[in-house]
Structure formats: C-alpha cells, structure tokens
C-alpha cells in the first residue's frame, strides 16, 4: 500500500476527527472553569478563579468532597484485601466452584448499575442502611471489587507459584510465605487494583443517587442534582479537579505496572 | 482457599445477588403471586415505547461507535508502536473521566447558549440556536462519546492478532489493497467487531445518567423508567419487573455472544 493513497488520507482524516471528538469535551471544561462569566460564554471574557473560590468556600460542596474522599479511601481499604485474597484463592485453587465464584465476583460489571442501585435501595431500606456512611462504603466496595480481582489476577499470572512452595519447604507457613514472597512481586497490580477501586468509588453516581442522603451525599450526587437544575460553572471547576485527580491516579497505576514489567 | 474468597463473595452475595433476587421476587409477589407487573410491562404503551426507544438508541449508538471506532483502531494497528500508544492513550483518556463530568461538558458544548451554537452564530451560519441537546440527538452524541473506548479497544485487540503476512500474501497474489482489506482483513477482525458491538450495545441498554441529563425528559430510556417508578410513583413492583426484563435481555445477549467470542477479556477493561 502506498503511504498516501486517497484511502490512507481518508483514514488519517477520519481518525483525527474522532480523536478530537473524544478529547475536546474533556478539555473544554478547563477554560470554562477559569472563566469570569456568570453564564456560559465561549471564549471566556476573562479569566478568574471565582468558581474555584466558590467551590472551596461552599460548605455543601466541601462536605460532599469530604464524604467522597472518605468513602473512596474506606472502599480501597476494604476492597483491596478482600479482592487480593479472592484473586489469590482463584488462581491457586483447583476447585471447580472457583470458576463460578470468579464469575460471581465480576457480576458488578455485568449487571446494569441502575438495577444494582434500585436493588440495594430496597435491601438497605429493610435494614436501615439508607443515607448512612457504612451503607455507602459497602456498596462501593462491591462495585470496586472486580477491578481489584481483575488487576491482581493479571499480576498473579506472571508469578511463578513454585517460589512460594520453596519458601514453604524452607519452613515458612502459608501466610508468611505469601507476605514475604508473593505479595512483593504482585505489589504493582495490587496498588493498581486499589487505585482503580478508588477512582470507581470517586466517580460512582447512580447507586449514590438512590442510597445516599442527608449529610452523607457524595460529590457526584450533588453534582447530578445541580446539573439537573442549572449549569453552574462551579461544576466546571469541580469537574476539572476531578479529571485531574483521575488522570494522576491512572498515571500512577499504569506507570507502576509498567515498571514492574520492565 | 474458600475461606480466602469468602469476604469478597459475601459482599457480592449481600449487595448484588440478594438485591437483584429481591427485585425479581418483588416483581412477582405482592400480597400473593402475581404476573400483573409483567402484563403491564408488556402491554402498556409507555413501557413498550421506552423499550423500543432504548433498543433503537442502543442500535444507533453501536452502529455509530463501530463506524467511528473501526478506522481509529485500524490506524492504531497499522502505525508503529509509539504512534499506536499515543492514539490508544487518547482513546482511553476520556474513559477515566467521570461520566458526570462528560455530561457537563456536552451540556456546555451543545446547549442553546453553548459553545457550538455560539460559534456557529459567530460565523453567521445560523441565526437561531440549534436544538442540539435535551433530546435524543444530545443523548446519542454523548453516549457514543462515553462508549467509544469500549468499541476501539476490543477492535484493536482483534486486529493485533491478524498476521501481517496474510495481507502481504493477498497483495502478492495481485489483489488491490481494498480487495485484500475486504476479503482478508475485515473478516478476520469480525471477532473484535462482535465483542466491541456487544459491549457498547449492552452498556447502552442500561445507561442512566447521560439520557437523564441530556435527554431533557423526553428520551425516556428503560433505566429512567426504573428510577421514575421508584422515585416518583412508588411503583416498586413495576420498577422491579422492568429491571428484571432489562437484566434478562442483557444476560441473554452476553450468553449468546459469549458462545462466539471470549467476552471476559473485554470485560476487564472497565
């Protein structure tokens, strides 16, 4: 194929357009967040930090941010060990039922979130977990588990279980050999899984819409309600901050994985 | 070993298996066994229209995502490694942006006083702002944006597996590039097409935030039917029946497609 046949040029052009379509909306919120205008005008008449100030001085937004960060941190602390233990068991065990369990752990990715959300709402209503912090954290642990399991399973694939056998033959018990031999080698994928669980909890909206309330409303729920009513540029500044946070975290997760591979 | 999986399994059982089971139970039991909820879902006009609209939108979104995603995956596959990593990073970048943030961005771009309308008026192309959002159009544009990575990544993965020699063989036997593409490359990339299309279609069936924020209340997708029945009308039985029908459709599609391509690989990518 010649390098610049008409077909090739067409391919480049359409791909470039698609990439612009993908990237532009993510970038457009940045200038809007620094705009001085009360309403959306583009290009912004002048730059200002008023929407960031609005966000950082508003007690409602601040409380929501605090809820989000707390939920995300607790989610990671619970989902990571549970997910690592499960992934380890799945990779080591030859039991038939493990395949089924593996599939069950991926259910949160398969079931449409709206269904999960409504179902959890009904169950929580029965046991009094609606609008509580533990309820919110538990739901996010469930949603974050698949990311940990997938990431750690991938890490375990490149790990030779014989090493652990050696450690055990030298007198370590199973638990010690796991922490001394296995964990250090799969650390990168454990950290990556934890980071993905954090991002998932930070971004989660639909379940929060149904089960959170009162003081325990995460940022995403407040944003959703605000977006339904009016487009407030404060949301642009929150969005910019959230996007920057996710990108930094993804970068952290992937570079760690790569360092391990290299 | 079972002790190690039990914490995770317990969370899954308590927070997804039990809730979904509860929904299913609630859809058929209300002071006794009843199929009334399902009768309503299958006979009443609003439900039918919403299911039809959801399938139409999902089909349209899948088709558009395939048309847009295929060339990008093809280009990424045909370029040297550095370039393909760059292209794929650009594809994955929005993937890690909150769905809510992207809904906001599309509102900012598409609304009457949005960036696109202001730009077009500045250029004097239009005199009245176009209705780009709070309708099905806005929903589709934003939904394709969110789901496109789910199309490109499986396509790229499938294309990577196609040996380059086959294309050269085609060319050496005298086929034109377009003929080699149609007869060799395209058929070999079909598993990727199937995997990507399934992911996009199924995810779209359950979409909630985007149609809720960009559909303007007129584009009532099935997920919104579920939430409205719960939040506004307290019709828990009806909401549950709709949820069960939606879930069964999703599982049926996954089941059928998984007989042809390995979907668990694709699922791992969010």
TrEMBL record, chain A:
One of its GO terms (cellular component) is plasma membrane. Keywords: Cell inner membrane, Cell membrane, Membrane, Transmembrane, Transmembrane helix, Transport. Residues 65-253 form the ABC transmembrane type-1 domain. The chain crosses the membrane at residues 9-34, 67-91, 103-125, 137-156, 177-199, 234-253. It comes from the Bacteria. It is a multi-pass membrane protein. InterPro entries: MetI-like, MetI-like_sf. It is found in: Cell inner membrane; Cell membrane. One of its GO terms (biological process) is transmembrane transport. The keyword Transmembrane helix applies. Belongs to the binding-protein-dependent transport system permease family. This is ABC transporter permease. The lineage of its organism: Bacteria, Pseudomonadati, Pseudomonadota, Alphaproteobacteria, Hyphomicrobiales.
TrEMBL record, chain B:
It comes from Bradyrhizobium amphicarpaeae. Residues 51-257 form the ABC transmembrane type-1 domain. GO terms for biological process: transmembrane transport. The chain crosses the membrane at residues 50-73, 85-107, 137-158, 184-209, 236-262. PANTHER family: ABC TRANSPORTER PERMEASE PROTEIN, INNER MEMBRANE ABC TRANSPORTER PERMEASE PROTEIN YDCU-RELATED-RELATED. GO terms for cellular component: plasma membrane. It is a multi-pass membrane protein. InterPro entries: MetI-like (IPR000515), MetI-like_sf (IPR035906). This is ABC transporter permease. SUPFAM superfamilies: MetI-like. Pfam families: BPD_transp_1 (PF00528). The keyword Zinc does not apply.
């Amino acid at each position: 194929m010649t390098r610049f046949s008409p077909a090739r040029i067409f391919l480049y052009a359409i791909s470039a357009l698609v990439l612009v379509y993908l990237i532009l909306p993510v970038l457009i919120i940045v200038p809007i967040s620094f705009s001085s205008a009360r309403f959306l005008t583009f290009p912004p008449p002048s730059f200002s930090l008023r929407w960031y100030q609005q966000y950082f001085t508003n007690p409602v937004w601040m409380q929501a941010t605090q809820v989000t960060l707390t939920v995300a941190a607790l989610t990671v602390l619970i989902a990571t060990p549970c997910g690592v233990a499960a992934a380890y068991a799945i990779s080591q065990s030859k039991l038939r039922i493990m395949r089924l369990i593996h599939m069950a752990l991926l259910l949160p990715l398969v079931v449409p979130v709206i269904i999960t959300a409504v179902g959890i709402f009904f169950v929580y209503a029965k046991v009094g977990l609606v609008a509580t912090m533990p309820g919110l954290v538990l739901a996010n642990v469930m949603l974050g588990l698949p990311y940990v399991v997938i990431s750690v399973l991938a890490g375990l694939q490149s790990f030779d279980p014989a090493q652990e056998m050696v450690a055990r033959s030298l007198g370590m018990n199973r638990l010690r050999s796991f922490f001394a031999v296995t964990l250090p080698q799969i650390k990168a994928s454990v950290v990556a899984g934890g980071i993905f669980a954090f991002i998932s909890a930070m971004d989660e909206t639909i379940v929060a819409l149904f089960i959170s309330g009162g003081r325990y409303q995460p940022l995403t729920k407040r944003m959703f309600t605000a977006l339904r009513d009016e487009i407030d540029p404060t949301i642009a500044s929150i969005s910019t901050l959230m996007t920057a946070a996710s990108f930094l975290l993804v970068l952290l997760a992937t570079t760690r994985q790569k360092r391990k591979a290299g | 070993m079972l002790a190690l999986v039990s914490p995770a399994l317990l969370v899954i059982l308590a927070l997804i298996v039990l809730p979904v089971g509860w929904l299913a139970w609630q859809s058929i039991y209300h002071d006794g066994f009843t199929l009334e909820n399902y009768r309503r879902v299958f006979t009443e006009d609003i439900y039918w229209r919403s299911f039809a609209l959801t399938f139409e939108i999902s089909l349209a979104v899948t088709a558009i995502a395939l048309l847009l995603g295929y060339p990008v995956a093809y280009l990424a596959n045909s370029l040297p490694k550095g370039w393909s990593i760059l292209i794929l990073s650009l594809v994955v970048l929005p993937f890690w942006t909150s769905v809510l943030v992207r809904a906001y961005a599309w509102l900012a771009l598409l609304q009457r006083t949005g960036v696109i309308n202001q730009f077009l008026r500045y250029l004097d192309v239009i005199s009245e702002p176009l209705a780009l959002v709070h309708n099905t159009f806005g929903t589709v544009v934003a939904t394709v944006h969110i789901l496109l990575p789910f199309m490109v990544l499986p396509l790229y993965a499938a294309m990577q597996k196609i040996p380059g020699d086959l294309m050269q063989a085609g060319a050496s036997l005298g086929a034109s590039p377009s003929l080699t593409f149609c007869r060799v490359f395209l058929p070999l990339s079909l598993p990727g097409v199937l995997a990507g299309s399934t992911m996009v279609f199924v995810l779209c069936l359950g979409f909630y935030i985007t149609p809720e924020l960009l559909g303007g209340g007129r584009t009532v997708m099935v997920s919104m039917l579920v939430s409205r029945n719960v939040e506004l009308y307290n019709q828990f039985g009806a909401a549950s029946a709709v949820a069960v029908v939606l879930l069964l459709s999703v599982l049926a599609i996954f089941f059928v497609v998984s007989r042809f391509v390995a979907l668990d690989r694709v699922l791992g990518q969010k």
